[in-house]
Amino acid sequence: MSELPHCPACQSTYTYQDGLLFVCPECAHEWSEADSNSDSNTIKDANGNPLLDGDTVTVIKDLKVKGSSLVVKVGTKVKNIRLVDGDHDIDCRIDGIGAMKLKSEFVKKA
Known about the structure:
The protein is mainly β. The chain is built from 1 helix and 11 strands; from the N terminus they run βββαββββββββ. Helix content is 8%, strand content 30%.
């Protein structure tokens, strides 16, 4: 048996499927499967804002660069990001350091 998604409006677990729509009996919210899939694939920053290719982000935490003594400092602006699949979901180039992969949880949209 497949697991039904939780309600995006109230997070209720008591959802059911009615034709092509999912319905929440607690808040009467209705949504389609395409709506629930698009929300799960969206990459969001530390504040919950959706990120897009080409956005500019700001680093919110000092990040050590693995394999070197360099550190990406808080407040570093990163321009023209590319979103990729995987654990590190941002591919970018940082001035003075070079090409890097970042996790979206350590950046905020500028």
